Amino acid sequence: MSISSFINSLSTTQVQSLSTTQVASFSTSDVRALSTTVISSLTTSQQIALTTAQVAVLTTADMVAISTTQVQALTTTQVAVLTSSELNALTTTNLQALTTTQVQALTTSQVAA
Questions:
Q1: For the whole model, what pTM was predicted?
Q2: What pLDDT, in 10s, does the model give residues 27-51?
């Protein structure tokens, strides 16, 4: 069983009990294979622990599924690697939740798209 299959079979409580070190150790292919339910159940600490490479493989569906709190927890480095489609997939509420610092972290190509 792959790590992503194992993680996808856990309950929300079990996912949230993973340490930030464990979450940061997932390969990008494992993160890509995580369900949107798992992604949306990550705690803000776990989400912040995601590496830039891990955030870069999140899907548009993952971005739609995350909460306002999770959006606000994105680091400026994480925001800078989001694709234009991922940003466009955010709800109006989530877009309005971006902090000034996060908006300033957006690249020219992200804003132009």
A1: 0.86
A2: 999 999 999 999 999 999 999 999 9
What are the structure tokens assigned to 67, written together? Answer: 């909460």
Place of tokens 């009990």: 17
Report the distance separating Cα 46 and Cα 41, nearest Å. 10
CA–CA separation, 101 and 1 (whole Å): 40
CA 30/CA 35 separation, integer angstroms: 10
Tokens 């464990």 locate to 22
Residue 97 burial by Cβ neighbours in a 10 Å radius (0-12, 13-18, 19+)? middle
Name which of 49, 42, 46, 51 is nearest 8 in CA terms. Answer: 42
